[in-house]
Amino acid sequence: MSTKKFLLFLSFSVLFFFLEINANAETCHRDASGKIVVDDESADGTDVVSHDGTTWNKDYCNEVPLFYKVKIYEAMFCSSDPYVDGSGDTGADPDLTSCIKFFTNAAGKELIIQPNLKSDLFDGNIALPIGSFPYSVLMVDNELGIKHYETYVDTGGEDADINGHHTVADNTAFSNGKTCYTHNKTTSFTGKNNATIHGKTIISTDPAKRNALGLVCTDSFDPNNPPSDYDYTTEIIDSIDGTCDASNDCDTTFRPYIGYQDSSLISGRYAGVLVQDDLQTVGTDRNNSTRIAYIINFNTPAVIDEDVKAFEMLFSTSESVSIDWGAANDVTSAVKLGADPFQVKYNFTR
Fold first, then answer.
1. pLDDT-based confidence at residue 135 (cuts at 50, 70, 90)
2. How far apart are CA 128 and CA 77, in angstroms?
3. To 10 degrees, the CA torsion angle through 135, 140, 144, 147?
4. DSSP code of residue 160
5. Is residue 314 within 8 Å of 345, Cβ to Cβ?
6. Structural domain boundaries of the chain?
């Protein structure tokens, strides 16, 4: 019987934000002062200029989040492909038989990622398996948190006038102003609304209803002394490829997997499978799908030997905020701030 060899590290390994913008991303267009430019009197909700700064044809744009919260349960290297392709709308359990775990936390380790800052994933010594590994799997919670604010100007360079969430009883009253910030609400990746997922109420993000909006807007936001309701908003990745039926409830076309995608960000390909609490069984609906198996197929296998001195997992969140807009009565509404999935790259120092 073979004996697995491990390389013992002190806590050099860290989680690190790295910024690398995809040229094809719909990044928000900003003015010289860094404010996002919006058409705050758009009648159809196409309020945001495309990233080239010319065409007003988008109802969303992508940005780097100020705070991105993720919970990690397991990390492992694998000698054989752990991804098992599903069939149609039915997923398949990942094959983890060749995988060796180098991190595990049954309760999940919650990490907050901030631009250009490092945070520890490992609380003490870790042991990496020695060998050559073409694959890796990261098990994370499919509830992702975003804490973020932005300030906006209109097409004439004046302060924008944007409607946001309000807590008063009158459903037609909005918060309003040039700066919009997140508060404690839950949305879904697919846009499922007016429902409960994982026991959490999903807001409807109806631009005409103040209590359905995921952002609060004001003219008096102070980042050094933010309002008490400035908080994390939660996005549930409830169908990993966004495929849903016409009624958008994912009952007939819920798809818990996405096959390998090429990515220059990670020097390889990635796939994803929504799994259940046991971190092994593929999800069958949006309620029992609680974790994401993020699978990497490296272009070049990760080689771990006695010469490795440090190890980093680099999370790319460069496009992981989707700022979504709508319009009601010819006024822009800040619909929600969605947490789009991240990408992960591994670095070894010798």
1. very high
2. 9
3. -90
4. P
5. yes
6. 6-349
- At 45 the three-state DSSP class reads coil
Amino acid at 306: E
For the whole model, what pTM was predicted? 0.87
Residue 108 tokens, joined: 């999940």
- Edge-first strand order for the sheet with 162-164 is 60-63, 321-328, 331-339, 162-164, 175-177
Pick from 181, 178, 165, 115: nearest CA to 320: 115
pLDDT tens, position by position, 212-258: 888 999 999 999 999 999 999 998 988 877 666 656 556 667 789 98
247 CB-near residues (< 8 Å, 6+ apart): none
Pair of tokens at residue 181: 């910030």
Query: What are the tokens at 89?
Result: 């709308």
Q: Compute the distance between CA of residue 282 and CA of residue 290 in angstroms, rounded to an integer.
A: 10
H helices within 181-285, ranges in order?
A: none
Phi then psi for 171, rounded to 5 degrees? -70, -10
What distance in Å separates the CA atoms of residue 121 and residue 15, rounded to the nearest whole number?
6
Tokens of 183: 């508060």
**pLDDT band at residue 319, thresholds of 50, 70 and 90?**
low
